Amino acid sequence: MKYRPEVDGLRTLAVIPVVLFHAGFQRFSGGYAGVDIFFVISGFLITTILISELERGDFSIARFYERRARRILPALFFVMALCIPAAWVWLLPPDFEEFSASALSVVFFVSNIFFWMQSGYFDGAAELKPLLHTWSLAVEEQYYLIFPLLLWALWRFGRRNVFAAVIGLAALSFVFSLWQIRHDPEGNFYLAPSRAWELLAGSVCALVLSRKPLPGNDIAGLAGIGMILVAIFAFDARTPWPGPWTLLPVVGTMLVILFARQGTLAARLLSLRPMVWIGLISYSLYLWHQPVFAFGRIAFDVPQASKRMLLLAGLSAGLAWFSWRFVERPFRKGAQYPLPTRAAVFRAGALGGMVFAAFGLFGISSGGAAMRYPAGLSTLLAAGDDTSRNPCKVEMRDSLPVHPVPACLVTSGQKAPHVILAGDSHAWAVSDEVGRALRAAGVDYYVMSHSACIPVPGIYRLDLKPVDRCPAFFDGLFRYAREQGVKTIILSGRFTANLTMTYYDNGEGGVEGLTWMEDRVVADSVYDAANPAVPPEDIRRARVAEAFRDRLTALSQEFNLVIIEPIPEAGWNVPKEAMQRALKTGRVEDLSTSRARYLDRNAETLALLRELPAEHVRLVRSVDVFCPEDTGRCRNMIDGVPLYSDDDHLTNTGARLLAPGVVEAVRGW
To answer: Ranges for the Acyltransferase domain (predicted)?
Structure first.
């Protein structure tokens, strides 16, 4: 096919926003749309080549996969190979184990499924995953397992029928993505069925241009660029994606491909030498930027949206040029270069895959290569295993449960529980130990939690899609409680983060999350689908505070409430912080944070909770358990054993300290 420099310029328009978005620059809050541009470009280029071969009658699936291997694997394996020593030096065992598992998933091009089953793309922890960005490569390769053969099979029915079939499949995929927004927003983002329409959009362009090139059109080409820029600068982490708004960058890219022909203003802009040069190295730049950023944050605490982050972006560009010049180009050239034959390409790909798969299995089986650290750190290394094993936690990707879930109901022969433990992931974190204590006290109970959902009736998380999922979850749970005649409900949740819409800074170097995350928790008691904008902060906060008070008061008229006051946040990941200090000093020291800072941060929440009617509400004072008044400190560890598995979730050891107070509050009801 004839080279089009403006397509390389379009790649620049895709990769730069992605890089700056991942660097934390808020101006590029919709930079993730660059991946959608890549999908359309990929669909266009691949389909154009396939159509050319089908027209000549020399289509070869083996040749197709040889091209894909030459294009994808050398640079990918090069980046992964250099990530391994960095991971060995800088990643603690739990993170090294996860990195190893992600490397294994990359080899089999299922990393999109791997990361879907973990956290969300927009979560803070995601920024510390060196191979997170490979999800998009997995989507493409899964798509290209099917599409070439499908196109070959359809070709015999005529071009018009092929076009109709591609349009139909794109429409089905798009409709599925709209359905997924509500039912599985994380799966919608990561999985191929809801992304296929974007690649098929590129195929539509290829089919149109293969019949008769369209004349250049300045208005259409510039409009396409404008649509892409709107997506990059106007959207953010709260925009449902992919979804209806994704049409903006996808259609914009289609307009550029179709109408930004040679000689048009749009083509001249995209064909400027810097645009073309960056476009040429865009694949390597995409591969390099995420691990460089992740290791920069992990090893050197590089803050988001900083000058140091820009330096890391520059380093990524330098590495990208090197791998493009000395890895990508040589391996793509063919006979006189490395891997001259198809068989050599496939053998090398298989060998490389086996090497990285072996590494992944080693990292998993060795517990993250824990042998790298002294045996004296075993209690810190074990903190990740000292967590709740309760299966009764619902994630956003799960269907809402039908109650009762048998595994979550602990009773002595009778069907109805006396107590329900409900809440978000904080409730789940304490559920094993609180459950044991309740059982020892002869109390039958049911436990059910939902990650990220505020355990107050009618409170929405506007940043979670669908926004009515959390209220629906608790409505169903409380309905079950009424039907079963439950007497007491224990509530635990991250109330303060949802009320104040901020993450925690302990004032001693422990700052939870990353700066761009601070607007992620968007709780409100009012939601209007026709006007979903986040209200001014003073209005939002007042409404949430009123809902906390009024709706918990109303709930206390139906049930006895035991509310666990906010668990003290640590600010730092306790096991990791303790291990990093121990590696520097040679000894494990207990971590703690300021009691006064806890009281100041949670003052509004504690005041609201203590206004609730005492007749039917009992509070478990977390501050008395973890923050002795005489020391003025909140304990993160005791005798070298972490009370937290991260920065705010208790380990079973920590939950064991809290459980007696919960049982005492339940007693007599």
So the answer is: 6-304
